[in-house]
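ARCHIVE CARD
CATEGORY: sequence design from structure
SOURCE FIELD: tokenized fold
FIELD CONTENT:
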């Protein structure tokens, strides 16, 4: 089976992990953690990094740091992974959905403003599958309405918006280092920011809100979202290989695009002239009318041929648990269409040219017209 995405870890990762064993530092107090935070912040062109146990806790920590709480609303795309809205719900606030746009598969930025209410405190953008959201208009809307901007950049390490790294464009950026992300620590996460106050508060909240002046003295409800030295060791090694890994990703995408461009009924991933797509996952849309078979059938057929794929996000406003919570109001046709037509092909950085060739050939053979 060609898996949809596998981590690419090697000698350097092992060497750094071994250092943790050799020095007996395995908890979050080990030196790799601070080093990883510093280097990852540099990688994102931001001043500060705060590590967390995963992308979800990084998002929750960001929400808590910005003071989001009961009664507040946060605007975000319905087309995302459930961790984005859950992080808001954990604080007692509620998400407000915005539909996507066909051109970028990202949140439809011009639709944000209509959804702003008095309760709205923040905008959470999600840079989907490696393509940054058009951030300038988002920042303009945020400024006009005095809102903070959280970037869920879990899928977009190293992506550029008008030459700027994602994660440093809004007020806070959140990353995941899950095994299928471009850079991985197995499980892990990070907040990036240029705001010293946010960085300090996030570090405090991440570690039980112990105070500096007196250890067991707490002024906030904190969390234990501490990344371990072992994970940070892997992360540091991955970071040193960031360019290599990104180039591999881009070359996988180039090969797919070359083979699939012009195939009637298949849409290749979006590009935008203001952004650099990092193609975290190589997504395609299958138009049943033109391709002759549906996305669901394409997925089933590929599975039979040993090719694992995954469908696009199921929009948040259709989730059973959110329906129960009354979060199913409104119409979001583009997000629903993306789910109906979208799937991603194997996208790991260790895919060979032959495997990609096999995948494309198998896919094109499924075409019924
Ligand atoms: C992966 C991902 C997350 C969650 O990250 P975890 O490390 O799995 O908690 C959040 N948002 C998006 C958009 C993601 O793709």
């Amino acid at each position: 089976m060609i898996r949809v995405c596998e981590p690419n870890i090697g000698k350097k990762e092992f060497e750094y992990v071994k250092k943790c064993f050799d020095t007996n530092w395995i908890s979050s107090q080990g030196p790799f953690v601070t080093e990883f935070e510093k280097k990852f912040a540099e990688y994102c062109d931001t001043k500060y990094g705060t590590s967390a146990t995963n992308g979800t806790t990084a998002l929750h920590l960001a929400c808590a740091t910005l003071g989001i709480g009961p009664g507040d609303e946060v605007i975000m795309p319905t087309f995302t992974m459930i961790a984005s809205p859950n992080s808001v719900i954990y604080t007692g606030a509620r998400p407000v959905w915005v539909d996507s746009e066909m051109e970028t598969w990202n949140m439809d930025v011009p639709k944000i403003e209509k959804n702003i209410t008095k309760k709205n405190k923040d905008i959470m953008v999600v840079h989907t599958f490696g393509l940054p959201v058009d951030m300038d208009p988002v920042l303009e809307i945020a400024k006009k309405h005095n809102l903070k901007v959280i970037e869920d950049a879990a899928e977009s390490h190293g992506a550029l918006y008008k030459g700027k790294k994602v994660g440093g464009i809004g007020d806070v950026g959140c990353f995941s280092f899950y095994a299928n992300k471009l850079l991985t620590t197995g499980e892990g996460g990070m907040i990036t920011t240029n705001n010293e106050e946010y960085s300090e508060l996030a570090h405090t909240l991440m570690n039980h809100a112990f105070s500096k002046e007196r250890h067991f003295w707490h002024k906030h409800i904190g969390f234990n979202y501490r990344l371990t030295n072992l994970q940070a060791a892997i992360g540091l090694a991955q970071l040193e290989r960031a360019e290599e890994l990104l180039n591999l990703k881009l070359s996988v995408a180039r090969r797919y695009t070359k083979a699939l461009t012009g195939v009637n009924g298949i849409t290749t991933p979006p590009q935008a002239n203001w952004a650099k797509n990092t193609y975290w996952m190589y997504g395609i849309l299958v138009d049943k009318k033109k391709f002759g078979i549906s996305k669901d059938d394409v997925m089933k057929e590929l599975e039979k041929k040993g090719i694992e794929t995954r469908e696009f996000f199921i929009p948040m406003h259709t989730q059973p648990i959110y329906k129960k919570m009354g979060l199913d109001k409104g119409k979001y046709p583009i997000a629903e269409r993306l789910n109906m037509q979208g799937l991603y092909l194997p996208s790991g950085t260790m895919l060979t040219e032959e495997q990609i060739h096999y995948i494309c050939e198998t896919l094109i053979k499924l075409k019924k017209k």
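CARD ANNOTATION: Residues 54-56, 80-81, 83-84, 126, 152, 154-155, 176, 178, 189 surround pyridoxal-5'-phosphate (CB under 6 Å). Residues 242-260 form the longest helix (19 residues).
SHELF: design records, drawer C
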